[in-house]
Amino acid sequence: MKFHLPILILIGLLCILSVDGLANADPTGCPDPEGLTLQVLGSGGPIADDGRASSGYLIWIDGRSRFLVDAGGGIFLRFGQAGARFEDLDHIAISHFHTDHSTDLVALLKSGYFSNRTRALSVSGPAAGGPYPGTGDYLQRLLDQDKGAYAYLDGYLDGSAGLVKLEPVEVDPGLSNASRVYTDPTADIEIFALGVPHGPVPALAFRIRIGQRSIVFAGDQNGSSDAFIDFARGADVLVMHMPVPENISGVGRKLHAPPSVIGKIAAETGAGKLVLSHFMARSLENEEENLQQIRSRYAGPLVTANDLDCVGF
Ligand SMILES: [Zn+2]
Q: Model pTM?
C-alpha cells in the first residue's frame, strides 16, 4: 500500500498527539486541564486498616502537578495513578514527620531519578523538636553519603550524580506569625506555613495562594490555636483532618480535633468549602454522627475525601 507524504505526516502527528495524551491520561477524569484542582492522593490515617493511602495532596494548576502537600505511605502509588509528574513539581510541603505524612517521600525521589527534571526542588517542613528531626536533617538522615539509609540517592543533597538538588526550608512551629516558604512572583503564587498544635510534635499548616484563590491545609492538629483561625480565614478550600470521633479523649484529643471543633473552625474561618480527610476506622465508624457535629456548626459545602478525588476551586 502506498501513502502520500502529507498523509504520512498526518499519521505521524496523530501518533505523537496520542502518545502525549496517554502519558497524561487520568483514569479518574480529573484534574481540570484549565484551572485549579486539589487532588487527594491519600485520605487515610496511620493504620493500615482503612483501605486508603496515608496523607498526601496535589495542587494542579492548568493540568500540571505543581505542589505536593505531605507524602505519607501509599501516595507514591497514587501519585502515579493521578498522572502526576515529578518534573512538574515546584514545591513539596511536609506538615510533620510522623510516618503517615512523610515515608513515601524517598520513594517519590527514587521515582524522580527517572524523570527529565534538572531544576532544584524546595521542600518545606517543620524545624526539629523532641525526637523529630528538622526538615534539613530529615533529608540528611535519609540521603547522607556516609550514614544515610539511602546513601545511593545522596546526589539529591547537592545536585550531583544526575539528581536535582533538594532545598530544605524549615519553619519554627513556635513562631506566632506565618512564614513564607515558597514564592513564584511571575505566576502570583505564594505558600505560607504556620505551626499548629499536634501534641508534642512539631507540625505545620500550609496556605497556598494562587492569584485570588487560596487553599489551606490544616494538617494534624487539635484545633486549639487562635493564630490558625487568622491564618485560615477566607480560604476557598479548607482541608481538615478527621481521624478521631466526637467522643475522643486522652492522647487522641491532645493530638486531634474532634468533629465539633472542626465544624467550629470551618465556620469561624468562613471556609468556602470544607474538605474532610485523614480518616481512620474509628472516625469512619459513626461517620454520619460525626458529620452531623460538623454540619450543625458549619453550613457551607462539605466534601468527604476519598483517594484520588478532585476538588476544583
Ligand atoms: Zn496523621
A: 0.90
